[in-house]
Write a structure and sequence with these properties.
Elements (H helix, E strand, L loop, with lengths): L8 H8 L4 H7 L4 H7 L12 E6 L6 E5 L4 E5 L8 E6 L2 E5 L5 E4 L6 E3 L5 H5 L2 H6 L14 H8 L13
Antiparallel strand pairs: 1-2, 2-3, 4-5, 5-6, 6-7
Helix pairs in contact: 1-3
């Protein structure tokens, strides 16, 4: 009798086209071969409700997601998102900005990642560390000293994708 882990990749790929995100996530936990197949996306995903992206857990540094369809929280280790501000999502992709205001598109399930071109001159040439360090530590007037996180949210407030980057 053959083992489930011996299913061919094309059969597994076809199966993934019928799975919602939570089942797709679980499929990758079965075995090494299934995990690698779960990261491919040759077929469009099954229609489903989106997952909500929540805050990063401080102790574990895992990103929390909430599935509307099965009303469950999922904690997923995504090192590419550590210290990044999320300012948009679309078509399964997250738009994240780091401390130097570098933009990245990341698919949290396939881990596919695209570094985006630099923002206009102010953002591309400015490290937020420099901006925050220029404000004296004892300064109490207006404008007040702001944190890195506040600078990230003020420089890049929202991002919207016009189409899925995988569809050309």
């Amino acid at each position: 009798m053959a083992s489930w882990s011996d299913l061919t990749n094309d059969v597994l790929e076809h199966i993934t086209s019928f799975l919602d995100l939570s089942d797709h996530y679980r499929l990758g936990a079965v075995c090494k071969n299934w995990r690698s197949v779960s990261k491919w996306r040759r077929y469009p995903p099954a229609p489903q409700l989106p997952w909500l992206v929540l805050e990063e857990e401080k102790e574990t540094r895992k990103r929390k997601f909430y599935s509307l369809s099965d009303a469950k929280h999922y904690s997923i280790e995504i090192p590419e998102l550590h210290g990044r501000y999320l300012c948009g999502s679309s078509h399964g992709w997250l738009f994240a900005v780091d401390i130097k205001i570098n933009g990245t598109l990341l698919n949290p399930f396939t881990r596919e990642c695209y570094e985006l071109p630099p923002f206009p001159a102010f953002c591309a040439e400015t490290d937020l560390t420099t901006l925050v360090e220029k404000v004296p530590s004892d300064y109490t007037g207006w404008p007040r000293k702001v944190t890195f996180e506040e600078m990230q949210t003020r420089i890049v407030f929202k991002a919207i994708l016009s189409h899925d980057p995988k569809e050309r």
